[in-house]
Amino acid sequence: MAKRITMAHGDGGEQAHQLIQDLFVEQFAHHKEATLDAAILTLPTEKIAMSTDSFVVNPIFFPGGNIGKLAVAGTVNDIAVSGAKPLYLTCGFILEEGFLISDLEKIVTSMVEEAQKNQVKIVAGDTKVVERGKCDGLYINTTGIGLIEKENELKYDFQVGDCVLVNGNVGDHGIAILTARGELGLMNDVQSDCASLFGFIQTLQEAGITIRIMRDATRGGLATTLVEICEDFSITMELDEEQIPVDDRVHGSCELLGYEPMYLANEGKCIFVVPQEQCEKALEIMKSHPLGQHASKIGEVIHTEQGRLLLKTVFGSSRRLSRLSGMLLPRIC
Amino acid sequence: MAKRITMAHGDGGEQAHQLIQDLFVEQFAHHKEATLDAAILTLPTEKIAMSTDSFVVNPIFFPGGNIGKLAVAGTVNDIAVSGAKPLYLTCGFILEEGFLISDLEKIVTSMVEEAQKNQVKIVAGDTKVVERGKCDGLYINTTGIGLIEKENELKYDFQVGDCVLVNGNVGDHGIAILTARGELGLMNDVQSDCASLFGFIQTLQEAGITIRIMRDATRGGLATTLVEICEDFSITMELDEEQIPVDDRVHGSCELLGYEPMYLANEGKCIFVVPQEQCEKALEIMKSHPLGQHASKIGEVIHTEQGRLLLKTVFGSSRRLSRLSGMLLPRIC
User: Fold this and answer.
1) What is the ipTM of this complex?
2) pLDDT digits over B35-60, tens only?
C-alpha cells in the first residue's frame, strides 16, 4: 500500500479501489456490502432513530482518543440518548492529499474497536480526497441508525422535583483538546472523556430507571445542553453549582483561562432527568459503572413552564444561564 | 442573519443555534426533529438500503447544478440503484470560516428542491465550521435510507445475452466541471447531467422491466462502473464503442485533452442490465422519459464467468478495459 494519500486515491479509479479494498473493506469486514451502492439491512422492528455528525477535531490524535474513536462514539451516543439501540453506522472520509496512510490505519482501527464495543456495524463508507491545504488531515462523517424499543422510548413527561444527574466530571474533553493544541500554554495530563455511553445507558434502563430525557453534553457543554432542554420542553431547572463535578486540573486550567467548566465540551458525559423517587437508585447504579464513578445530582426541575435554566452559585445567589456565546472553542469535535 | 460564516457558527453556542434555527430548521422544516439528538422515524417495512456520500466538488456552483443539488441527487441515486425507494436523508455540513451565507442559502434551497422532487425528507443535520483555509468553501455529507420493496429487489441473476443500457450521453458532468474550473482552457456550454434518477427508475419498474442490476456511473465513469460490475459478479460484458452516446461537444473536449468519455464522471447516468427480450421495451420507455432521451443499448453480457469488460472498438478490434487509472480528475463530486 502507498505511504501517503494522493489525489488518485480519490478519483474512483484503480488506486481508490485498492485503498478501499485494502483498508476499509478489510477492516470494516464489508466483503458483501462492498459490491453494492448501498448497504442492505434488515431491521427487526419499525421505529428507528437516525443521526449524523461530522468530525473536524483538531488535533486528530489527543490524550484519551482520536478522531476515529470520537466519530463512532459521538454518533453512537446521539442515537443512544434518543432511547435507541445503535445498530448500523456509515462513515464518510474526506482526506487531504499527503495524509499518512499509517495514521489513517490507526484511526480506522480505533473506529472498528469502538464499533465492536457497541456491537454496531459500519455498513457503508465513502472516501473523497482533496488537494493539500483544502482540509486539515482528515474529516469524518458518521451517520447511524438505531432501533427504538417500546420499553425504552423517552416520554419527556417532566414533573416538578425531577432530578438532574450527570455521570461524571465535566470539561475534560475541552481541556484535553485545548492542551493538546499547545496554544494556550496549558500543561496538564487531563485525558478526554471520549467514550460510548450506550452500555452505560443500557445498565440504567435494565435496572428499571425511568429516564425522562437524556442528552450528551458535547459542544457548548453541560450548560448549553441544559438550556436547550429547558427551552425545548418549556421547563425550568435549577442547578446547584457546588454539585457539578469538575476535576481539579480542569478547574485549575479554567481559572487560568477564564473559562467555565460547564461550558466546555464533553464526549462521554450525559445528562439524565429522572423522577425524584428514583434519584438515589440511579446514582448508585451510575457510580458502580466505570463511566459513572463521579456521577452527581446537579439540580432539579423546579417548574414545568418558563423554559429557563437557573444556577444557584457557591455564594448562594441565583442567576439565569444562557447558551455558550463568544467563547470561540472551535473544532472540539 | 450574519453575512458570512464565523467560527462562532460552529461552537454549539448561541450563534450556531441561530444559524441552525434560521436556515436549516426553517428550510428543512425540522420543527419537531430539531429538539432531539436523532430523528425518530417509522418505517412501513423492514428491509432498507443505507448509503453515504461526501461531496467536495470544485467549483461548488457549476453549469447544471451546485454541490447541494448534487449531494441530494447523489445519495438518492445510490439508494435508488440498490432497488430501494429513497425515504430519509441526513446532511452534514463542514463550512469554512468566511463562507458567504447567501451562497449557503442557495445551496440549501437546491437541496430542499431536489429532496422534494424525490419525496425524500432531510431528517437530521449537523454543522461544523473550520478556520479559513482548512476547507474549500463547504463540504457536504448526505446519508440516506430507503425501503426495499419485494417486487423491486434486484436478483443479479445474469444471463448470456442480457443487454447493457445507459440512459444517455456520458461524460457531461466531467466536462462541465472541468470547464467551470477554467484551468484547461476549455470553452463550451456543456451542462452537468446532475439529476435524481429515482423517478426514472420507478418508471421502468412500474412497466414491469426486470432489472438484473443498475448502477449509476459517477466517479470513474461508465467504464470503471462496468469493470466493477463484471468483477463483482464474475460476468463478462462486451461493449460496442459506436453505441456509447456522447455529446459532440464532450467528444470535442475529450479529443483536445486526450480523455475518453467513458471514463468521465456522470451524475445523472445509470447503467441497466436487462433480459434480452425486454431490451427494446426498456429502451422505448427510457427514450420517452426526459432523463432518457439519448438512451442506448451499449453492450451485452457474453459470459457468466471470467469477470472482464471488453470493448469492440469503432475499428472492429476488441480490447479489455480496466478501471480508471492515472487520469487525476479529483473533486468531480
Assistant:
1) 0.92
2) 556 777 777 667 899 999 999 999 99
Distances (CA, A) of A222 to A52, A96, A321: 21, 33, 11
Q: Which three cell numbers stand for residue B245?
A: 452516446
Say if residues A222 and A228 touch (Cβ distance below 8 Å). Answer: no
Q: Which among A43, A124, A220 has CB closest to B11?
A: A220
Q: B11–A330: do the CB atoms touch at under 8 Å?
A: yes
Residue of B nearest to A174 (CA): B11
Residues in CB range of A14: below 8 A, 6 or more apart: A8, B322, B323, B324, B325, B326
Residue B247 pairs with which residues in a beta bridge? none
Q: Do B324 and A136 touch (CB under 8 A)?
A: no
Nearest chain B residue (CA) to A153: B40
Q: Looking at beta carbons, which residues of chain A come within 8 Å of B37?
A: 51, 78-79, 81-82, 215-216
CB contact under 8 A, A130 and B220: no
Residue count of chain A: 333
Residue of B nearest to A219 (CA): B12
Does the pTM exceed 0.95?
A: no
**Whole-angstrom Cα distance, residue A55 to residue B183?**
32
Q: How far apart are CA A41 and CA A146, in angstroms?
A: 12
